[in-house]
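As agreed, record passed on underneath.
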Amino acid sequence: MYRPRRTTAAAAASVVLATAGGLLTVAAAPASAADCAAPAFERQFFANTTFSGTPAKTDCDDAIAENWGAGAPASGLPSNRFGVRWSVTRDFGSGGPFALTASGQDGIRVYLDGELRIDLWQNTSTTVSRTVDVTIPSGQHSLRVDYVNWSGPAAVRFAYTPRTSPADDQVAPLAPAGVAASYDESAGRASVTWARNEELDLAGYRVYRRASEGGDFLPVSGANLLTETSFTQDLPATGAAYAYQVRAVDLAGNESTGGAEPTVTTADRTAPALSAPTATHDNWLGVSLAWTAEEEGLTYDVQRASSPDGEFTALGTVSAPGYRDETAPYGETSYYRVTATDAAGNTTTSPVVEFARPLAVPSMDGTRIADDDSGVEVAWTSPASGPSTFRVYRWDRFDENAVPEPVTCEPRRTGNPEDPKPQYACTDTTAEFGVTYWYRVHTVDAQGRESEPSQPSSITRADRVAPPAVTGLDYTTTEYGTVLSWDASPAADLARYVVYRAPADDPFATIERIAEVAPGTTGHADVQVADDQSWIYYVDAVDTSGNSLYLTGSPSDVAHVETNEYYLGPTYNLPFTYDWALSATVDASAQAQLSWNCTTGSCPATGFHVYRWDRVTEEWVRLTQQPLSAATRAYTDAATPRGTTSHYTITAVAADGSEIAARYTSIATAPSGA
């Protein structure tokens, strides 16, 4: 029981004696309110059973468990017909299920937030009791217990206790407030503190931790619940950051949420983990180093030495786990190591790795290999910028079993002397005409060691003598064009004949290449030639080296002949318009394929007729019985005459049945088998 507390001098003398009509009476002295801190009750004594007037005495009581027997409850109060009132307002935390239990002799009433919950208000000589289950919401709530004694012994007891079985209590506690965390760098220890919960059924606390960047919170406070409001934990000095949670647990096993999540960052005294570098080689780019690290945000210093115990020279600093050494010497062994530094200044140096870079391999890719009157010029590029010695090999057939032979030639520097990738060339004066040679180049160092070979490059040293002029060139003018014929060329290396054509009035300015003819064929039919035109035809012999009189000399040196085409056109044309444009081609079956289109954007027509000129009757003969549809734009003449020139036109049919023609067009077809 919370022992009565004196609050004022007046309260020390709680009653005074007075005379009234010769009888001694008890007069209550005024009592000031007690300053009682929850969960202690404020207790008020009344010299009546109606709790009226000023209390005779007020003090604090931490539990209601009284048995005054037949005596007075306090000095100066009567032993019968008195009243005592207890009241408290307190924080119930998350609330939950509670049992209100009251017992005693005579009248007892219990109020929760002003609502009557237990009523045992009766004058009895025996002990009465009652227990009531209630659910109290979270937060602040008031309890009041009124007790009166009318006569006889006086006793009263009251308690409010949480019901803590898991079946009854499923309300989680409130998250602890005031959670704070700190880290002692010198001790390497994290400390977490928090305010005590107001839960009446609190069993203790658990502390959880996770990495600050995320993940699941895991318990770190051990198997037993903490009953104090602080927790310490040793943390390794790795520079890692952690977030903490504190959760309250009640007697029913319910656990609160985590609430605030303060973080701590440990001191970083851990050197970063670093693998040994690996090295690979690129003939042109240098030695590429690569390594792995377990953390990000590191900087790496790369160093190289000429011996494992030699003086290491700094090559560069990078922020990614890789480096390319463009200056690694060719043909020598280099030794590398990497030092990693983290943001806290911790460093780790990798094991030393050695790498033997091969001799520089020349490249003939994209360089010039050519022949002229003096020989074959072989050109290459070296990836090494310094002075180099080279050896050139050749073989005259591309055979994996062929043994290349060295070429006697003097390499010389070519191109821009400031180019970091210098170019070289040498001339093979012993190469023979008409032979295909394959070349490759090696770098040679001062010890006479040769590099791997360059990729091979080949050239055929061709002759430069054109075949003789074609003889016996003649022509025949036909209805379908000009048919040329000539004598077979005596050139042993003949590759083809090339036929050219030019207008007779401008034989050199507008020469047109019209056909290539294979060796063994000594003729060509030019079927698409305008009527009544004079032409000059040239037939040129070309050898396998590309030599020809036309290419190396003048068209006048080439065999040529002048012809004149027949005029086979219509003697008259139908009335025509330029609104429609007509064209014709000959397909693989020697059939005329006509097509037409509107040239003005608006060409009304209800349909089309197709006509072909009949040179015998000198008439335009209509080929279509019924007009073609207005959407038609093509027509095939399945009866196209062979071995002659045919002339076609189409007419657009108007709504009134009248027709207007397009300008005619012509095609020529060779005879069957020609």
